[in-house]
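Forwarding the complex inputs:
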Amino acid sequence: MRSDEVKVCILRMEGTNCEQETFDAFKRLGASPEFVHLKQLEGRDTLAGEGRLLKDFHILMFPGGFSAGDYIRAGAIFAARMKAVLGRDLVAFIEEGKAIGGFCNGFQIMVELGILPAFDCTMAEHPQAVLHANDSGRFECRPTVLKHVNAGKCVWTSRSNKGELRHIPCAHAEGKFMLPHESQEKEDALYQRLFDEDRVVFQFSDPIGDTEAPYPFNPNGSRFNIAGITNDTGTVFGMMPHPERVFFRHTHPDWYRRRIGPEEGDGRAIFWSVLDHIERKF
Amino acid sequence: MDISNLFEDVGLPTPVRRVNILDASDDVLRSVSERLSIGLSVDEMRRVRDYFGTEGREPNDIELEALGQAWSEHCCYKSSRYFMKKAFLDLHQDHFLIKGEDAGVVEFDDDHVYVVGLESHNHPSAIGPYGGAATGVGGIIRDVLCMGAQPVAVVDPLFFGPLDLAYERVPEGVNHPKFIFNGVVAGIGDYGNRIGIPTVAGMVNFHPGYTGNPLVNVGCLGFGKKVNMIHSRVGGVNEIYILAGGRTGRDGIHGVTFASTDLSADSEEKDRGSVQLGDPITKEPLIHSCLEMNEKGLLGGMKDLGGGGLSCVSGEMALAGGFGAVIHLDRVPLKEPGLAPWEIWVSESQERMMVSVRPENVDEVLHIFRKWDVEANVIGKVVEGKRIKVFWGEEVILDLDLDFFTAGPQYCRTYISKVVDREVRDVPFPVPDRSGLEAALLGLLGSANICSRERVFRTYDHEVRGRTVIKPAVGRPFTPGPSDAAVIKPLEGSDRGLAITADVNPFFCELDPYRGTLSAMEESVRNLVSVGARPHSVTDCLNFGNPEKPDRLGDFEEACRAIGDFARFFGLPIVSGNVSLYNESDIGKVPPTPTIMMVGLVDDIKLVTTSDLKTGGSILYLLGRTHHEMGGSAYYQEVGAACSCVPDVDMHLSRRMMEVVLDLDKSGLLQSVHDLSEGGLGVAISEMCIGGHMGAELNIGLIKDGSSSGGGSPLRCDIKLFSESNSRYVVEVQPQDAARVEDELSRYEVPHIKLGTSGGANLKITEGEKVLVDIPVDILDHVWRNKLTWLLEGSK
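Prediction (whole assembly, two chains):
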């Protein structure tokens, strides 16, 4: 499949607000993104020609933002609305090998939907993890360094080598990734499983690659500095930081300190990787 | 006075009262105005009475309420317009495309415009800091949106009382500055973050004069295509008025009259209901839907509902188009049942937009709103003639001539200009030794007005939309310094950028409103020039005290004159603005605060400069003249000295400085640029070191008194270090470029001094052989970076 044939559904509802830059990222790489309101998939209040079917797309993107204001719990309302009407379509979409990605609020929505981490299933009935309030208790908009630790499972980072550091900023109030704590042992085992199954994609690190670095390098306090994970098939991927904000180098926090260098920002590889995957597979 | 007998129910199913004032005396008129809280003076009430005399009938309460809103200071600028008109309203430049509407529209390139607005939300924020600030952001975003532009950046200059004010010194009825600060910052963050518009710049200032009356100014920058710009007026007769967005409720009743009186100890109790409630998740789809239908060409006109609510919008939109309007008030959706018609008419409930639409486009417009789950209702239409009629069912309850309704009074009230002693007459005190100077520098870096704002701007999303090229922090990502201005790159496929800054130094303005305002204009220019942007337009928010007191109005007049003088000299248009008067409480007036927001153009964002030192071994120059003018300076506050001579602005020099720095910048000769402001050279160089995580070694021995009277005579070393003279920059230059840079500086006749070099771990400043300061950058960083947190959390 040519890149311009790759159809990307940039899904939005009220309060979604990183959709333009997410759209732009795919567009710049030659794909065919489209803004789709959740109601267009639900078929509510649509005129002829406005409805859309999930299966007609190859990539589903949950952009960042504050869907429905995040007033109940980040991403909870978006996820509940989506699951009620489109749950089965979503499972079929994943099982066909198509890709789903979410950044920041998108990641929160995916966790609420149960499609991440999705232990032993495609979509869990109840959330299996939570993105909890930051340890600081505040919204944190700051530069973060991510260490790419995936050994090859995640199709969203195939263009990034294992061990590579990427400067991708974050901006969230609820980003502390937590797995259930029935007992310390069980919780530890779950984390172990994430690592063993190569499902951890990014960890927060300091500028020299220490993935145990505390705040502010880890802006939210997540255990093992987890910043992004994938599902068992490697096609469903969520992360707290915002790669769409660093598509170009000139939006990095310190790009002007080195005048020479590529125009490419550290976020671009993520979009590129998933397009590679779809182009090869379909 | 008992005037109950004047009010007579007209017998509708909803409460509308006739108010019998045709035969009323002055005393009765005053009582009626007070009873209705509409804030009209006896003179104004007489005009109203006479008008209804010619109409041959008594007014209804809703009509008096409507006039009270329309003729408030906030809506009609009755005390301020005279002065602004005289000083700067005539300034025009060809790139200034649309003036006099909700926000100014300025040319960006052949096909695009940027849109700017700046507003105050002071009184609501004093009482309800969180809601007041949030709805301030919401209001200014709607102003920009209703010109047809996508909002792309928010700017928030904030002014509070001291955070460490002892609780027993907080006046009665006043919230502690810390409470207000926390609420305002959270309100801006929660609202701005939720609607997805980056908050990229601003300022936070602390001054005891804001204790009783904080100032919350909020600016917004929008961007759009020229062809999509739309006016705040109806397009033609028979257009349909559609009211969209939030429902109408009792929040925000009498917001504009509340904004047009002094605060008092019982304001919290009495005026609670004047504070609106924000709802970003109604606003966000409202932005999308309005932009979508505007782009499709479906709208005749668009205007947001702000001060004065439906009352102001319905009339102003129709009149601006040359028509009249009919409104069916019973069709306005309400938050709760039981609102009286007058309440619906003047409510300032948030997140509402009025669009006027040709009849054939109504269905499509309603569909687009429905698609976004935005409630929208047809509530009226545009008619011939210049009258506005409001119906409740079949009954007309308001019927006013629009020319009379919208033509509020204009006053030239008495004013007295402040007598300023500009002769330098400070009480001499001994020049501090090294330890004194080091303590002073650390004291300044750790002072509330100079320390890092990181604690604030990290809670604002400043890079959503992915177009923020220069953020509020610059330098090494995890130990950044302050940036002089934010830069965004608004357009895909173009490297042109917009730089934005906001500034004012209330300590200067308090002592000398004219020079203080000039300094605010000049500092804004410096901030833009420091990042490599050419100043392009000015927006102001003039926050002053009660204009009915001549000295307050005198301050206002001086500030207007300074804005006009500076803008005229620099050829800068004043593209929009806002006046906020009556910023007074029981403990007095706020310092004169003419907040200046300036937008600059960057030809190529790849060439921007920042303040952080880049490489060791670079040469550092000081550009400009240093004077002994310490009035309002941070250093004199730090050491407890007084002086009434505030820094002057030499506009000729200022312009040459601007030209040469922009020129050098374009040639890529400047590694870093930082302007000198609060704390002077000592603070500026410290900030450059902090951002670059690198030391510097300077010799300030060559700095001489720059004034003609001083004639190059020596200055005290502490004055050299901490003078806040305007029109000065520190620049970092690679050694191989030094000769070229010096030639250029000489060619522009710009005074410059080679200060020293970058490098090492310490900031070392000498005067000849004598060491004045020698401090590790890590220590400077620690004090500067953490002070605000210490102040807020009460530690250290």
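The mean pLDDT of chain A is 95.
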